[in-house]
Design a protein that fits this description.
By secondary structure, the protein is mostly helical. Helices cover 75% and strands 0% of the residues.
Length: 327
């Protein structure tokens, strides 16, 4: 219980620090939301309206301390105002519209990449020197060096433009009306998600494979694994229950952080494929100096990462009883 209380206190302090940084960073950026609106209206706006816009969107004309206090209070209540880049719709509405797309694409792909990567890495280390171990690590060392957007552009050129197997952009066909009770619409959504999911998976799985392989090589040499072999236990049981279970522990924190950053989406991938997720939304907010939307997204990402790390820490304590006494 003391350990959990210490961790909770750490989360509260970290969250407050993140809230403070989240408040000041957008205001240190050049430009302002009001100036963006003036640009959209071709300069036809009176000074009174300009002042009102600056106050509404956290402009620099307002006292910074008062703005900070108001921001903290609104953040705790979940009130982030309206979005400049989304036709003045409520920020929460804009985020909730984009969040399911990111969770469905990046979230599922991240979990799938971790499962496949750790599994293949464990098998490669277990059969060290075999065909799997000789092929996978060198191949994914090269593939992991490719930027996300480069892999995405290559996938579009090959599978969409050249072969015509998949669509190039979007999350579903323009002639369809969104209807999640229709199998035709769901199938079209899955069809559009294949290329961006493939891009994220190919670019991320290599890191999990290499990390798990290196961890497994160290764990396999431990005495308890040798003892399990001496007892004549089935190799599959030794692989997953003895070696794999302990080798995956160092990867849990990294996986938790990956899950936390799922909220931000794969920004470049969503941009390349024009996918309407949170990453694309964040990029749009930055380009338009949309303070309320940026702050809400940054706060959402921060909370997701902190909660994910906290859960991973609890999972590590459960999986590795040796850590309980030291904590």
């Amino acid at each position: 219980m003391k350990y959990l209380l210490r961790r909770f206190g750490f989360l509260v302090i970290t969250l407050w620090g993140a809230l403070t940084v989240n408040f000041f960073i957008p205001r240190l950026m050049p430009g302002s939301p009001a100036l963006s609106i003036i640009g959209q209206s071709r300069g036809h706006i009176n000074p009174a309206a300009l002042h009102a816009l600056e106050a509404a969107f956290g402009g620099t004309q307002q006292n910074i301390f008062i703005s900070y206090i108001d921001y903290l209070g609104n953040a705790l209540r979940g009130q982030f105002g309206v979005s400049l880049s989304s036709s003045f719709q409520p920020v929460t509405t804009v985020i909730m519209r984009a969040l399911p797309w990111t969770l469905g694409l990046v979230g599922v792909t991240t979990i799938l990449g971790f499962i496949l990567g750790t599994g293949l890495g464990a098998l490669a280390a277990w059969r060290r020197g075999g065909a799997l171990d000789n092929v996978l690590p060198p191949m994914f060392i090269v593939v992991s060096a490719f930027p996300y957007f480069w892999v995405g552009l290559l996938a579009i050129w090959l599978f969409a433009l050249t072969l015509g197997w998949f669509p190039t952009l979007g999350s579903y066909s323009e002639n369809l009306i969104p209807n999640w009770t229709s199998w035709g619409f769901i199938r079209d959504v899955l069809w559009h998600a294949i290329l961006p999911a493939f891009t994220i998976l190919i670019s991320s799985i290599g890191g999990w494979i290499l990390t798990m392989r290196n961890n497994m090589i160290t764990v396999v040499a431990e005495d308890y694994v040798k003892m399990a072999r001496a007892k004549g236990l089935h190799p599959r049981r030794i692989l997953w229950q003895y070696a794999g279970r302990n080798a995956v522990l160092p990867s849990l924190t990294g996986f938790a952080m990956s899950l936390g950053f799922v909220i931000s989406g794969a920004i470049l991938v969503e941009f390349v494929f024009n996918y309407p997720g949170v990453g694309f939304l964040l990029l749009t907010a930055v380009q338009n100096n949309d303070y309320p939307l940026m702050q809400a997204l940054f706060l959402l990402i921060t909370v997701a990462v902190l909660v994910s790390i906290f859960i991973a820490d609890i999972a590590t304590t459960i999986l590795d009883p040796r850590t309980r006494g030291s904590r």
